[in-house]
Amino acid sequence: MALILVIEDEPDLVLGLRRNLEAEGFRVLHALDGAHGLELAIKETPDCVILDWMLPKLDGLEVCRRLRAAGRRVPVLMLTARGQEVVKVVGLEVGADDYVVKPFGVRELVARVKALLRRATGGVVRAEKLQVGAWEIDCARFEARRGAESRSLSRYEVELLALLARRPGEAVGRQEILNQVWGMDASPTDRTIDNYVVKLRRTLEEDPKRPRYLLTVHGIGYKLVP
């Protein structure tokens, strides 16, 4: 039975999330501030973390940043307020795996949690290592390495690269990417893919604005050039 940690400072929202997650068979822990949430995330090793951005003591971005710095690869679903596009992108950059915009439907959130758990236990990753330009992608460790340099990757970044790497030079459609990486029962958007591609380009490309390896195929999707 998967353990879900909810780090959220709105008691009514926490109560609703707990009831719905437990109804789906999950065990649930919760924390009302970022400092306590970070402590529980490290001590209790949950299977998934639902993390609000606006929190007392430590905000959600800092909690996520510290989790990743501590080497914890637990899937993180970040909650953001409507219109906080910059926060969403920054959240992905510090290691969040996905986000949901408030107000959200509970069914959508539960579907995304299930998709994160499915990715954590299976997903589309097959190869242990991939090569993108000068970078070697260690799929098991969620890292990109170039010589002595190392950069952390999120699970979805690795899944996306692995999907494209299986079909080098071939355009993969957006809907296929959504289905294969995020899952049929999740509800991401095309913008979700774009955010991850932007982050990957910042990590792997010498000039992210003029990419050589992770290319856009207009009207279709993306391709990875060997």
Quick summary of this structure?
The protein is α/β, with parallel strands linked by helices and 226 residues long.
List the helices and strands and how they pair.
Elements lengths: L2 E5 L3 H13 L3 E5 L2 H11 L3 E5 L7 H10 L6 E6 L3 H9 L4 E5 L3 H16 L7 E4 L2 E4 L4 E4 L2 E4 L2 H11 L6 E2 H9 L7 H15 L9 E4 L3 E4 L2
Parallel strand pairs: 1-2, 1-3, 3-4, 4-5
Antiparallel strand pairs: 6-7, 7-8, 8-9, 10-12, 11-12
Helix pairs in contact: 2-3, 6-7
Q: Tell me the Rg in angstroms.
A: 17 Å
Strand content: 15-25%
The top level CATH class name of the largest domain: Alpha Beta
Give, in order, the helices and strands: EHEHEHEHEHEEEEHEHHEE
CATH superfamily of the largest domain: Response regulator
Helix content: 40-55%
Summarize the main sheet. Answer: 5 strands, parallel
Helix count equals 8
- Strand arrangement, major sheet: 2-1-3-4-5
Structural class: alpha/beta
Q: What is the CATH topology of the largest domain? A: Rossmann fold
Number of strands: 12
Low-confidence stretches: none
Indicate the CATH architecture of the largest domain: 3-Layer(aba) Sandwich
Q: Could you report the average pLDDT, rounded to the nearest whole number?
A: 85
Explained architecture:
The protein has 226 residues and is an alpha/beta fold. The chain has 2 domains: 3-121, Rossmann fold; 129-224, Winged helix-like DNA-binding domain superfamily/Winged helix DNA-binding domain (Arc Repressor Mutant, subunit A, Orthogonal Bundle), CATH 1.10.10.10. The chain is 42% helix and 23% strand. The protein is built from 8 helices and 12 strands. Helix 2 packs parallel to helix 3 (60-69) and helix 6 (155-165) packs across helix 7 (174-182). The chain is globular.
